[in-house]
Amino acid sequence: MEYFPQFVQKIEDDFVQIFEKSLTPALQLMSYYRCALMEVETKFKVLNEELSLSHDRNQIEHIKTRIKAPDSIRRKMRKLRIPLTVESIEKNIHDIAGIRIICQFVDDIYILADCLLSQDDVKLIERKDYIANPKESGYRSLHLIIEVPIFLHNEKRQMKVEVQLRTIAMDFWASLEHRLNYKKNIPRDKMDAITKELKNCAETSVWLDLKMQDIRDSIERLEKSEGV
Questions:
Q1: pLDDT, tens digit, for every residue of 102-161?
Q2: Has 90 been annotated as catalytic?
Q3: What angle, rounded to 10 degrees, do the helices at 106-117 and 23-55 form?
Q4: Catalytic residue among 162, 177, 203, 226
Q5: 199, exposed or middle or buried, with CB in 10 Å at 0-12, 13-18, 19+?
């Protein structure tokens, strides 16, 4: 299979040509995804403002948005074995636009998700609950693929956005795991030990999330009983 590296390079060259030959459509598509992110981010900010009035606190700690980089798109197209076209990107890759909502407590995640999905211009495409069913590694998060409309000067377009909702503890753990997964010079036995420790840390973060939520509930019950 001596030709395989040349074949991979050909795929990479072809991918670059997609954006060179179809630069305007590619730039337009990325612009549409940015618009979709702005729409979804605004929805969450409005929900956070409204819910803060009834809960006397903010459900959302902070919000992160990102557009998938061209190199990541290329790798995903190769993995999915889809045509190397701009149209194929929009049709087959649903996480080009991503927004991450970091919450204080686990129940905030489900409250926000339910509120978002109850809006009549939001369509749920896919839901993966890695909180109720964590990954083998210990990763936890609620993932939603949604479709929302963006309103351009001459048309309305439906765009897909990936939404990830996590607690602060979940996000801290996931960020550390992501960084370690990209370390290539760690010996296999050391990496296995680190992976085991990370899983133990994931279990600790579950306990922390539940304990902090219990403490919050206790405080709220005391406030109600004392009429605060």
A1: 999 999 999 999 999 999 999 999 999 999 999 999 999 999 999 999 999 889 999 999
A2: no
A3: 120
A4: 162
A5: middle
